[in-house]
Amino acid sequence: MAPEEKTLSLGIDGGASTGLVPEIAARAGRAKEGRAIRALALRACSILAMIAVWWLLTFFFPPSLIPLPSATLSEVVSIMSSGQFLSEMGATLRRVGVGFAIAMLVAVPLGILMGTIKGLENFFESPVILGLTMPGLVWAVMAIMFFGLSETSAYAAVAVTIMPMLAISLWQGTKSIDKDLLDMSTAFHAGVWSKIVDVILPQLLSHILAAIRYGLGLAWKVVVVVEMFGFSNGVGYQVVRGFNIFSMKQVLAWAITFLIVMIVIEFGIIGWLESRVTRWRPKLEAWRR
Q1: What confidence tens digit (pLDDT) does each residue in 258-288 have?
Q2: Cα torsion for 133, 131, 108, 266, to the nearest 10°?
Q3: Distance between CA atoms of 12 and 15, rounded to whole angstroms?
Q4: Same domain as 121, residue 5
Q5: Same-domain status, 269 and 211
Q6: Which of 30, 57, 84 is the last residue in one of the domains?
Q7: Which of 37, 83, 102, 141 has the fewest CB atoms found within 10 Å of its own CB?
């Protein structure tokens, strides 16, 4: 083939390849958008399925036990449109947030130290395991007996209950980090702080996010129990108030508002944070269908 023909052929091939790039990117974008819509549709269908099961149960139980979904959702709207929702949910969120922050401040360094120093692992392993096996209800009762019916008792109950679980998650995560990366950082004379920030913490992100999810889920349960014991505000107090007047509709309505806030926190805050801090990782989902 003559040089002119080769040049012309390469030019045509290069132009075709350049034209394919935007098309491939557009297809990938449409596929990603389709997957997101499908995931959202499946989540919506699961909620609708639960509501359908709830509606079917109303045919077998009296309204005092299983109220109609429409009546309960109407109560939810009434609660959320009133100032009562903000004050009650705000009190519960404050107790969860403060207790969770205290637990994280203790659990993160403790878990990392247990995963890196064998002596500290042996020393703290038994207390952490014993703390994990203690029921949250026991911690709640002990906190109220020790601090009385005060905000401190709620903070302490939440922190002590979830701290062992957070520490174990980070402890095991630290033990599973890539040792070769630590050796490489040592070879490049990285300092202790640089090793923690640039090597250890990035590999612990998935474990930290999982610990946040589990910790928040458990913290909600504990703080509601504490509020049931005698607090004058909070979601737990409102649930007990509904129980005292035997109003299943009110109990379910406050439970649903509770779940709505949890969904917002999970998908609106934690999910967004996870997508931001782990976007550098390649997505390996070839085995999923």
Answers
A1: 888 888 887 777 777 777 766 666 555 545 5
A2: 50
A3: 5
A4: no
A5: yes
A6: 57
A7: 83
Q: How confident is the model at residue 7 (pLDDT cuts 50, 70, 90)?
A: very low
Same domain, 147 and 271: yes
Distance CA 108, CA 111 (A): 5
The two three-digit tokens of residue 97, written as one number: 């947030």
Rounded to whole angstroms, how far apart are CA atoms 234 and 244? 16
Regarding whether 78 and 26 lie in a shared domain, the answer is no
Residue 26: predicted pLDDT:
65
Residue 223, amino acid: V
**Do 131 and 248 lie in a common domain?**
yes
Q: How many domains does the chain have?
A: 2
CB neighbour class for 99 (10 Å; exposed up to 12, middle 13-18, buried from 19): buried
Among 153, 163, 160, which Cα is nearest to 211's? 163
- Examine residue 282 and state whether it is found in any structural domain, yes or no: no
The 10 Å Cβ neighbour count of residue 79 is: 18
Q: What is the pTM of this model?
A: 0.73
Question: In sequence order, what E strands does the chain have?
Answer: none
| Residue indicated by tokens 């709830």 | 54
pLDDT at 185 over 60: yes
Supply the range of the domain harboring residue 161.
69-277
pLDDT at 206: 77
Of 170, 171, 179, the C-alpha closest to 207 is 170
pLDDT at 188 over 50: yes
Query: Do 17 and 107 sit in the same domain of this protein?
Result: no
pLDDT surpassing 70 at residue 179: yes
The proportion of the chain whose per-residue pLDDT surpasses 90, expressed as a percent, equals 3
DSSP 82: S
Q: Does the pLDDT value for residue 8 go beyond 50?
A: no
Task: Decide which of 57, 82, 99 is a domain's last residue.
Answer: 57
Judgement on whether residues 111 and 245 belong to the same structural domain of the protein? yes
